[in-house]
Amino acid sequence: MSEQKLINAPAKPPFWRDPEKRALVFQAIFLAFVLFIGYSLVRNTMANLEAQGIASGFGFLSTNTGFAIAESLIEYDESSTYLQSFFVGLSNTILVSVIGIFFATILGFIMGIARLSKNWLVSRLAAIYVDTLRNIPLLLQIFFWYFAVLRQLPNPKQAYEYFGVVFLSIRGLFGPKPIYEDGFGWIVAAVILSIVAIFVLYRWAKKRQEDTGERFPVLWTSIALIIGLPLLATVITGFPLSWEIPELKGFNFRGGLVLTPEFSALVFALSIYTSSFIAEIVRSGILSVDKGQTEAAYSLGLKPSWTTRLVIVPQALRVIIPPLTSQYLNLTKNSSLAAAIAYPDLVAVFAGTALNQVGQAVEIMGMTLAVYLFLSLFISFIMNWYNSKMALIER
Amino acid sequence: MTEQKYPIGQYPNLPPPKNSVGVVAWLRDSLFSNWFNTLLTILAIYIVIKTIPGLLDWAFFSADWVGTSRDDCSREGACWVFINVWFDQLMYGRFPEDQVWRIQASYIIAIAAAIPLFIPAVSRKIKTALALFLLVLFPIICFYLYYGGSFGLEVVETTLWGGLFLTLVIAVTGIVMSLPLGILLALGRRSNMPVVKSVCIVFIEFWRGIPLITVLFMASVMFPLFVPEELSPDKLIRALIGVTLFSSAYMAEVVRGGLQAIPKGQYEAAAALGLNYWKSMLLIILPQALKMVIPGIVNTFIGLFKDTTLVLIIGLFDLLGMAQLAATNPNWLGFSIEGYVFAALGFFVFCFTMSRYSQSLERRLNTGHRN
After folding, report:
1. Closest Cα to residue B228, out of A46, A273, A313, A320?
2. The domain that contains B208 carries what CATH number?
3. Domain interval for residue B316
4. How many structural domains does chain B have?
5. Is the CB of B195 less than 8 angstroms away from the CB of A30?
6. ipTM, two decimals
């Protein structure tokens, strides 16, 4: 009897054969190894910093930089602090990324749809566009736009002139700059009001269509609203807006809005390079929608444009969005190539110029990396939220 | 022509109408099916006419091909003399001219060993042996060939390396070193052990979240701080370490995709056979997973190949770097476009071939795992 019991009870393995205990031991060794590497890195860094006499800590952030930055969204001059230069770089990085993402998306969707066109010439041209630009390094494209195209433009004195208000030269594209006068707030208020009105109208029209089946021309009403209301406000307040036209003074233009060649080259290259990747994503997304869906929509009596809008695009977007997110992330990270043509983005200003002056590599690189990590997490967070909203609700 | 009468149901098949077959029908269908399509066609033809002849004229018909100095470039088109004169530098950087045979020898060995891998008739054993040679022995041979210092070869400092040669060195080293590291990271990320898993996740997400340029900045300004002073390696090795760590994170995500695609039954079958973790991974899971992700690995390689251009920013001169250097030479100012076109062509040839290869692999390897 007692022998039977012994056989039935599971044999207790010795502790070096017990998977759970082995896992614990292995993890302890692994952790010790990681901690040792971390510790020796920190120790070496401390020793090296001391040997080279480099200060540590974030005190440098409140001292004056003494260098100028060519373009900046926020107020900055030579007497500003390093912290301000950090924010200048950050704002420029975000500006380039947002504008680049905007154009890359438009261009990418156009090219992706063009590649699927039944028109042989159009689809071939789009294929050549995608295949060529995808396979040429981004840095080379930035150099091409900057050194080979925009730096070859004439001097300001021989600038190309359009309508007497826009000037294109080696110093960039100069255009008229709006000057806001009293009462401009009314126009802004009108724009906001019309956006709110369109939103309400959209909700109301959708509800009415669901209730009664009657459709309301939302698009045309919206266009009328967004153009009409601000125009009305402008007329009532008596045109509280004037333009500052750039003027040639000495070797450069003064006044007006300016797009520098560095900024333009970076935006061109980033959006064109990324658009070629987005085009492929869009193409595969649309191809992933089964042909039966189109046929089913037709048999329900939907016309082709509604089929595209109501059946194909929503399903294609589910496939498109995840890889699209990673392209947006790539574009944001790639905007750091600005350093190569001296556009003052975060890497060029802070990890470049400021680092060379201060020498506190650990702190400065740490802040720079933290920004990129935060931006990456932020974009993927937004996209995950959107993705979960769009995702198929399975039974 | 008399109208022939047929019994009902026995009318012979007529040929299709003339305008629904042949060139005319193709033109109608694909180019002029409706007003919008016609407009697009006209626009496309306009673009082609505007760009292609000018481009061909610039690149071929009115280009200068032979000569030794910029004075030989008198015509309107491209000045390929510029590329001609700088060709050796674009290929090998400032590698001493009488030592260039060492690089060429390594290319020949690599190509000779790689060709049998693509011939289906060669037996599997030979292929395995050649692949192992390329992955393990060949890099060692290359190091001695390139750097020298023994076997009677004189030392060539890494500061002299450059051009397409440096591009290949960085890209190939990066990919070969990052593959094993990436596999380990991917396994770690899917591990049951919380400590290992979280360390791997943090590592992967950190490297994937930062741009390569900051990695290279770190390699050049922070790496010397991290190690004892007497250990500080030279610039190229620091860049290689940075590139390897960076691409290993991407490689890990590619491999993880393959691991996730393996059905759970495979893991359970391996465990039921009594295989331990490493044996089940090495013998059952990884062979299947890696086969599935070869296209992904090739795509990572293409990305890395293009990204090597960034080493220019920390003062290493790869193909683009040499083109840039040549274009800023005071004797050759004004030929930057030719340099960029040549470099772009170089990168395009490599990347395009590889992407086509990965597409064909994808079709060939698609053995029923996905429908």
Report:
1. A46
2. 1.10.3720.10
3. 157-365
4. 1
5. yes
6. 0.85
Which residues on A lie below 8 Å from B320 (Cβ)? 137, 139-140, 143
Higher pLDDT, B162 or B231: B162
As a whole number, mean pLDDT of residues A301-310 equals 86
Given B195, B320, B351, which is nearest A135 (Cβ)?
Answer: B351
Residue A277 has pLDDT above 90, yes or no: yes
A202 part of a folded domain: yes
Domain-located, residue A16: no
User: Token pair for residue A266?
Assistant: 């970076």
Q: Residues A40, A44, A45, A49: what is their CA dihedral angle, to the nearest 10 degrees?
A: 160
Phi, psi of A184 (to 5 degrees): -65, -25
Residues of A in contact with B193 (CB under 8 A): 23, 26-27, 30
Helix and strand numbers (H, E) in chain A are: 14, 8
Predicted structure pTM score: 0.84
Tens-digit pLDDT profile for residues B236-260: 888 899 999 999 999 998 998 888 8
* Rounded distance between C-alpha atoms, residue B42 and residue A293, angstroms: 32
∠ Cα A382 A384 A390 (to 5°): 105
Per-residue model confidence as pLDDT tens digits over B298-328: 888 898 999 888 988 888 888 888 888 888 8
A81 - beta bridge partners? A64
A26–B229 C-beta distance less than 8 A: no
Q: What residues make up the domain containing A190?
A: 178-244
Look at phi and psi of residue B9 and say left if phi exceeds 0, alpha if psi is from -120 to 50, else beta.
left
**B218-236 pLDDT, tens per residue?**
888 888 778 776 766 788 8
Q: Is residue A132 part of a domain?
A: no
Q: Does the CB of A386 have a partner CB in chain B at under 8 Å?
A: no
- Answer yes or no: are the C-beta atoms of A74 and A89 closer than 8 Å: no
> Residue A191 and residue A232: Cα distance in Å, rounded?
11
